[in-house]
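Entry 0007
Protein: Peptide ABC transporter substrate-binding protein
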Amino acid sequence: MRITRKAALAAVAAVSALSLAACSSDGDTGDDPTKGDDNAGISQDSAVNIAWNQPFYSANGTSMTGNATANNVILYMLNAGFNYYDEELNLVQDKSFGSYEKISDDPLQIKYTFADTAVWSDGTPAGPADLLLEWAAQSGKYTNVEAETDPETGEITNQDELDAGVYFDAASPAMALVTQVPEIDGKSITLTYDKPFADWETAISMNLPAHVVGQRALAIEDGVEAQDAVVKAIQDNDSATLSKIAKVWSTDFNFAQMPAEADKNLLVTSGAYTITEFVKDQYITLTANPDYKGDHKAAINKVTVRYNGDPMGQVQALQNGEVDLINPQATADLLTAVQKLDGVEVSTGAEGTYEHVDLQFANGGPFDPATYGGDADKALKVRQAFLKTIPRQAIVDKLITPLDPTMTTTRDSYTVVPGSPMYDGIVAGNGQAEAYGEVDIDGAKALLAEVGVANPTVRVLFDPNNTRRTNQFELIKASAAEAGITAVPYEVQTDWGTDLSNATDFYDAALFGWQSTSTAVTESDANYRTGATNNFYGYSNATVDAEFDKLQVETDPAEQEKILTAVEAELVKDAFGVTIFQFPGVTAWNPEKIGNVSKLTIAPTIFYGFWNWTAGEAASE
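Output (structure tokens):
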């Protein structure tokens, strides 16, 4: 029987994870362009359609299940927060929502103060209770039970225990450093860290409305009363009440279509937009929130994100006028196709996402020591053998360079972007290029022969609707076969993103992309630390954990580089997986429908600066 925190969400079948005619809504403000003082002047007819590859499935963007680009690009427009990145990737405080300041270095204390203009869309003020709840969920302080699953079926086997205990589907190394209950004073809340933390500015963000969580968990109708009850349960460490709160926080906000009328409070937001239409696997429509009081007001009244996992299908939709802005996973054929479209603007360049393959360490598959009676060295050599067959450079040569002639080399770092100050030093010291820079079929065969493993089968998880990933898999499959390894596509059960975090017993290797959401040096902590949010594979290395502990408090860039080099060397030594390439990007849009498009290299990419968008006359037709 396998133990995993992620598995507790396996029962939520209507959601997915990382990448990747509807009725009118209650949130529609009608035809009056001046309804709601804060949207005065915005045309109620202005609208834009944007194509995206993977449907939204969770309004909880910081949970293990919901932490995915597919969700967070939508949540970027739905919710406000204490800071955001500008076009130069400078972190800027949004003082119309609130402010924060470091009030002490020893101990490190950060004080957050909510502005009077920080208000949820149902009229309830946003405040310290919301941030306190997020801390409670992310810190691990109250979680007292893990989920156990049947390795054959993936079904939860201890649901009664989960229901009786406190289980937050979350884990944050940063918030684990805040063991004292944060102190609330009026509209302010102060977090005290047990030790210094280098990336404290991005350590915690606003997420779910505490009053809605309290209403749903505790059957309290009044929002303020429900909010207060959540605060009291956290401050009193009331496990019985926290059990209900944690269950709502972890599961209720996962939805893949418009919630039923009785669940409309799941749609409460704090930002410029609210969800007004949502058809499963087809589209989601956001409409300007008339009660939003902040600085980043909607410039276009209605934004509809239409889902299409086929990159060339997105190009066709742009050509047909069905969508106005696209940013699909690019291929050379796709770039040629968009460049041939009349009246379309095209932008290219490297993005903040990188492709990689990660391996499972604890799922009873070919890379798990348990498969070989606990023989860790045997499992390691099987992992190494498979990684030696992955044709990293051939993938770049065949799929990436034809799209962007400047992108000719593999990405050889797990933690930093090519071109960044630390990249060359880390690559020189991590050993990935030496171990897996070239395909080594003879070396793979020798490793398998040495440990007596013949013809292992590797189940590979990837998005079957993504043309570039399908092409990569075929190249990997053909190369692995030369070494006697059979690579087979994992048959997606729900959708590939959900299965990434919840079906970990049923695939052995995952082929997908990680997209940076910040410039924090500790961002990779969540991928490789034992039990961390993005570590879906049972990987655990005490040296890696210790190095990340050091990184959390280190502010000297030279020392940070040494620490990350040490982490990456361990990943190579353990055959955790390989990186392949930095994403080439192609963005195309119809300037008659949308203007002032400005894409960031990190999330939220093309949705950045929605408050600066302009809508042409055609957009209001």
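Curator remark: Confidence is low (pLDDT under 50) at residues 1-38. The chain is about 30% helix and 15% strand.
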